Amino acid sequence: MSTTEKHSVSILLFLIGVLPVSTVAMHALGWIHVQVLLFPNVFLIAVALVYLSIFSSFGNKLVKSWMMGIGAVLLYDLSRIPFICCGWTDFIPGLGGWIVGEKEHFYAGYLWRYLGNGAGLGMAFCVLRNYIQPKRIIAFGALYGVCIFACLDIILLSSSYAQSMMFEVTPISFIGGLTGHIVYGTTLGLLTYLVDNKISDAKAVVVNQL
User: Which ranges of the chain would DSSP assign to H, the alpha helix?
Assistant: First the structure.
């Protein structure tokens, strides 16, 4: 595969990775209903993971990053708990409602959040990591999380309709969202570094990043 072809595949995989979270954003903005893009999301991610894991050495990294994204979003959700207790609205059940055509659906919402948004952004991170020095991957992960957060808040601040669909931007939601996305991105970076280097001592990893 030529360099141009590799870059083209990387761009395609990145777009597939960000498709689930982009679908949520487009629905929240009133551009297109999430149900319209439900099958394309599932099909494209499944094909990318299965095909590449069989026919490409990069596929193994992609599958691992998809799984890392699930783990990272779990820690993100744990970091959300104090902020939700302080009044931050959990819109994920509402997301599930969009998918199944009801007002709310807890399981559908969190299934999309973990297997779609979180895992998909893990795939996108896997593509970007090829352009980052390995010793900087944790710091890049944190920056990656901040960039995702910035995109989310730009959408919310630019559209009162999006806020009504998801949640209002308040000091609590701002701090909670920023914290959660930093946790998510940093976890992706840390897991990537640990897996790539087979290091079990997290302290050694952190020192190596400084």
Answer: 3-28, 38-55, 57-85, 92-100, 106-112, 119-128, 137-158, 160-165, 171-197, 202-209
DSSP state of 103: S
- Asked if residues 130 and 174 have their Cβ atoms less than 8 Å apart, the reply is no
182 close to 146: Cβ distance less than 8 angstroms: yes
User: Which helix (DSSP H) or strand (DSSP E) does residue 87 occupy?
Assistant: none
In contact, 89 and 196? CB cutoff 8 Å: no
d(CA 49, CA 52): 6
CB atoms within 10 A of CB 91: 19
CA–CA separation, 53 and 48 (whole Å): 8
pLDDT in tens, 117-132: 999 999 999 999 988 9
What are the tens digits of pLDDT across the range 33-69? Answer: 999 999 999 999 988 888 777 766 677 888 899 999 9
Q: Establish how many alpha carbons lie within 13 A of residue 116's alpha carbon, considering only the half-sphere containing its beta carbon.
A: 25
Contacts of 86 (CB under 8 A, 6+ apart): 172
pTM of the prediction?
A: 0.90
Tokens of 119: 């895992």
Amino acid in the structure at residue 79: S
Q: Report helix angle 137-158 to 171-197, nearest 10.
A: 150
